[in-house]
Design brief:
The chain is of the alpha/beta class. It has one domain: Roll (Chitinase A, domain 3). It is built from four helices and eight strands. The strands form two sheets. It has a six-stranded mixed β-sheet with strand order 1-7-8-4-5-6. A two-stranded parallel ribbon has the order 2-3. The longest helix is centred in the N-terminal third of the chain and has 12 residues. The protein is globular and about 35 Å long.
């Protein structure tokens, strides 16, 4: 379960994520149902209209794990783009990745881990966002 306020997504990310969740190998993953529900409730906007402080796909985000009080930096990617050797990537189908999608700088995000424990983070900074960088169709 992902507790987050209103979700705004780039219309291309939204369409790609819906298509991704239609694929059986991804639809059966534990976080897929929660992400699908969020997509159904999300507002979508043209990539050029996405606020520069919103985490979108391929954003590089610095966030604080509020439980462990550590600062992390990750790029939010689609699962098929995940490089298994890269430690700086995070799949949108990981619970943390799904929780970060649509979060805004300064926002706290809370969700439940697969083991039932609660987790929380705070988005500290966007180091790169495709829309803000003019890479509107990445």
């Amino acid at each position: 379960m992902i507790a987050q306020l209103h979700l705004l997504l780039n219309e291309l990310d939204h369409a790609r994520l819906e298509k991704l969740l239609d694929r059986p190998e991804y639809a059966k993953q534990a976080v897929a149902q929660a992400l699908s529900e969020r997509l159904d409730a999300a507002d979508v906007a043209d990539p050029a209209e996405i606020p520069a402080d919103l985490v979108s796909m391929h954003s590089r985000v610095r966030f604080r794990d509020l439980k462990a009080d550590i600062l992390l930096e990750k790029e939010l990617v689609y699962p098929h783009n995940l490089n298994p050797q890269a430690t700086d990537q995070l799949s949108v189908l990981a619970p943390l990745g799904a929780a970060l999608l649509g979060a805004r700088v300064g926002q706290e995000v809370h969700w439940q881990l697969p083991n039932g424990k609660d987790a929380a983070l705070k988005v500290e900074e966007l180091l790169y966002q495709p829309e803000a960088a003019g890479d509107l169709y990445r």
